[in-house]
Amino acid sequence: MIDRTLFRATLVSALLSVAGCASGPGGGIYVPTDADPSTAPEPPQTSSGSEESEAPVWRKSEQPETTPETRDSSRSGSPSYRETGDGLSPAALSLVREADQFLTQGNVSGAIGRLERAQRIAPRSAEVYFKLSEAYVAGDQLGSAEQFTLKGLSLAGSDVRLQRAGWLLLADIRRARGNVAGADQAEARAAAL
Amino acid sequence: MVYLDAVVTSRFEGRRFEVPSRVYARPLELFDGASVSAGALERELSLSGFRKGDGKKAGSYQRSGNRFLISTRGFSFPDGDESRRRVSLTISGDRIQGFSVIEGDRAPIVRLEPAQIGGIYPAHKEDRVLVQLDEVPALLPATLMAVEDRNFYDHFGIAPLSIGRAMLANIQAGRIVQGGSTLTQQLVKNFFLTREQTLLRKANEALMSVLLELHYEKDDILETYLNEVYLGQAGTRSIHGFGLASQFYFGESLKDLDVSQIALLVGMVKGPSYYNPRRHPERATERRNLVISEMEQAGLIESGRATRARQQSLGVSERPSYSENRYPAYIDLVRRHLARDYKEEDLRSEGLRIFTTLNPAIQFAAEHAVTDTLPRLGGGQGAESLEATLVVTSKDSGEVLALVGGRDPQFAGFNRALDAHRPIGSLIKPFIYLAALQQPDKYTLTTPVLDKGFTLEFDNGQRWQPQNYDRKERGEVPLHEALSRSYNLPAVRVGLDIGVDEVRETLTAFGVDTNISRYPSMLLGSVSMSPVTVAQIYQGLATSGFNTPLRTIREVTDAGGEALSRYSLEVEQVSDPATVHLVQYAMQETMQEGTGRSVYNTVSQQLSLAGKTGTTDDGRDSWFAGFSGDLLAVAWVGRDDNGPTSLTGASGALPVWSTFMAQVPQHGFSPVVPDGVNYHWVSSEQQALTDEHCENARLLPYIAGSEPTQTISCSGSLERRIRGWFEGLFQ
Fold first, then answer.
1. How many angstroms separate the CA atoms of B237 and B231, rounded?
2. Which has the closest alpha carbon to B163: B147, B152, B174, B179?
3. Angle at which helices B303-311 and B259-268 pack, to 10 degrees?
4. Lowest CB count within 10 Å: A155, B287, B421, B535, which one?
5. Of B402 and B46, which is predicted with more confidence?
6. Residue A51 pLDDT > 70
7. For residue range B115-162, what is the model confidence (pLDDT) as tens digits?
8. Alpha-carbon distance values, B283 to B176, B277, B287, B289 (Å)
9. Chain A residue nearest residue B594, CA to CA
């Protein structure tokens, strides 16, 4: 039997960071310069068209440029990397909350459906994967739960709260699966943070 | 008589339930921050059957500049209903901004109804959208009876009186102006669509009509009629029933039709091609107005409403809201995935709803990239027979977003993306180095590897002498450079050092499910794969070591919306994220300095990308596989006859790939640094830590504990220069 309360304890802390995540979801995107290849001519503009006259937002890193831990990308032409994943946008967060409601009602597949929608719009957010893990724990699919936790951990980067939540979650899942050594190892990782 | 009875009963039962499966694209999700260009949004709306208008009527939208007002129709998704809403949004920098729900349930995220992208039809190619009598607007059957069969609820299948009346009218007019068939007779006629007008057939028809009436309730017959009547043709596919006709002609659901639209459909029963509103608008208008008058006479509508209805335009959508098999290669993959769990006959007749992952905007860009780029490639002799494929997946979910199977994307023939198994060439190299970097005490990104020729002699006396593409040899080169420049000799040496089996195991872990050759030539990519398999194994490289099975289907429901199967996101860690991070570095370097650098002739420097070129002997296969922050794409260019071309991965497949990537708004690739990886400024050639401002300094990732131990100053020696400055000052 799986002790659900144990799982929940670690998850609450994981989700707490949702609201406080400093980095916005996604940051800037690449905007194609070419006009749409086969679009009909644009209808006459009723507005002044000021939006179009703005310079397109191009940014190498997905992190906001002000975030200190992001590598200075001014040196163009060098491989990019970043220290943390994305946060959750309000849209993704609303889906995660709906999933929470489903979980409370015991509707696991409903929750997974909502979380997969959230994952599609926030694919680089560790929280989404931890939530998926929670849903799979509720559905007694611990193998999938472990994998989603690992995926979340791969995006936690230098965020200590996310790291700790992830490792503790992993320890719980491994213990529930009978992998005591793996659980101890994960707990040690959490303790070392 | 018994025979006729059996025939008509089986037809009636069979036809009532045979409905093709419908295949839907993924629904577009509208929310603040969603990446979509104004043009793509408009195309998406049109694909989903939205019409340009005031944005107030359900199923219409208004665009002024980059501001959109959209009135959704609502849709019943497998995971719940999306209600009708009126939303407003602005597109700025290819992203949705200021999204708000003006009318309907407030929500920060709303799904548009998905575009129908195909169907899986019964063998006889009849298509229909099944409707039930109680969901049909009452005006429709009432009008139908007023026009076609006033005594439907009273007769017993045939109406001798009206036949007589029709004959009289026909004699008076000197031509056929009235049919005199009851709805029941028309239904029977529809069951056996032959045009021959023989007496025997007429008699059989009448008999069968009477038999049908004996067996079934009037409402059953009426409902079947509504779903059965022939109302037009779309290519080889025939349009049956008012449900589908409503979508086909107006792009709207039957329940949303107004008086004039109902009148037009009822009017068309008499001759769907003669009164085809797209081809013969005047005839159709005349016929519609006649029906409106009949509605008025029968007291179904008031005269004011009738007058207004007559003044309306036909309201027919420019083209059918969907056409058959617009994406043959993609649907082919969907069918193969479905075949794992469903029988073909069920797909053809059970009216299943199949929700796929196809992204129409991405598919559009992918098709354009292939058709636009192929004619511009040189390719030497046989350039006209060049073929290409492009597979695009969502990097972190494994959803297949687009698939192009050949130079003519509309052609439903040989699906190269799935069935062309070709040697992958240098696409294998990241896996060789990945296997090597898993031994950080032996291999790091700066480990010198030998770019020098050698000969392998096999037991049977055969010799193998691998060479570089440019036939040059460079001596020692750092590992990251050997990968980004795709040198062959170091790859083979490293592969042989760690062992071919190690590389095979890595490939298998990443998703190759066929037997892989043990010959050392596999280290230069003699192993054959389909483009879709390449996309599968690169998924693990793009996602820091997580194998994510490719999916084309999210969910299948029955005709009533009940979920039958869900295909969930799955991830499985197959490699240490730290090692994959190092390979991702070299794959980014490939795009900036290596064999993929021409990508930035097409794409802005600001979009960081990672990838790998692949070329096989005599340019028979030109490959490119790579990814951004959001998308993974694999392009292949070559000839079906496996003939030589003058192309390399960089000059054939890469232009297709780049043209695709350049069109799509998306995030750049910027992987999160995994636990246990540290970046250091190093002199890559001398394998030593150095200062950031040194000329040859490079910021490279190392697995903790494997970083260089020596430190070196900038060449020209920093200390000496400082001393020189002091000397100058104090002399």
1. 11
2. B179
3. 70
4. B421
5. B402
6. no
7. 988 877 766 666 777 788 888 999 999 999 998 888 888 887 777 666
8. 17, 8, 6, 10
9. A77
Q: Which pLDDT score is estimated for B16? A: 58
Phi, psi of B127 (to 5 degrees): -125, 145
Task: List the catalytic residues of B.
Answer: 148, 426
At position A22, the amino acid (one-letter code) is A
The residue type at A3 = D
Distance separating alpha carbons of residues B694 and B714, to the nearest angstrom:
5
Helix axes B199-215, B2-17, angle to 10 degrees: 70
pLDDT of residue B126: 67
Q: Which domains does chain B have, with CATH numbers?
A: 27-113 (3.30.2060.10), 126-311 (1.10.3810.10), 366-663 (3.40.710.10), 677-730 (no CATH)
Contact check, Cβ <8 Å, B394/A120: yes
Asked whether the beta carbons of residue A39 and residue B699 sit closer than 8 angstroms, the reply is no
CA-closest candidate to residue B44, choices B403, B235, B253, B322 = B322
> What average pLDDT does chain B have?
88
CATH class belonging to A88-191: mainly alpha
Q: Where are the domains of chain A?
A: 88-191
Q: For residue B704, with 0-12 CB atoms within 10 Å meaning exposed, 13-18 middle and 19 or more buried, which class applies?
A: exposed
Q: Structure tokens of B60?
A: 């219409």
Q: How many CA atoms within 13 Å lie on the side-chain side of B521? A: 13
- Tally A–B CB contacts below 8 A: 200
Whole-prediction pTM: 0.80
